[in-house]
Predict the 3D structure of the following.
Amino acid sequence: PTPTAAFTPLHLGSKTHNTLPSRMIASRVLRYRPKALFLNSARLDFDKKLDFSRLTALTDLVRNEVDIVQDENEIVDLVQKSQPEIVITKEMEVSAKALEKFPDTVKLLCEAGTGYNNIPIDLARDRGIDVVNIPTYSTESV
């Protein structure tokens, strides 16, 4: 199954209920948890106070707890060993050379911030990898 096929409304009898707490919906509805790799989670979780529970409820999350991975070979090794469907970065460059070596399992590349100039978007699209960012990240603190 594809990740999008896993998200369906919760049906109880003939009614659709969207008022249940999100974690109950996720646990009942989500039949499939994609594997996600956060390449540099320490960049986002610098003070070790960030709660990843919502993400771990929806994915099989692997966190590489470093601030940045600069070596292309290390990026490729991490992704190839993990075989994730989702790769998450925070202000970290993913070069075209590294992206070309990502396994076909990768379907989504997420920049956990506002920009995505650090990701070769055209190459990702050519490879069938969607690229997303979080445009409202840090909006309240600015």
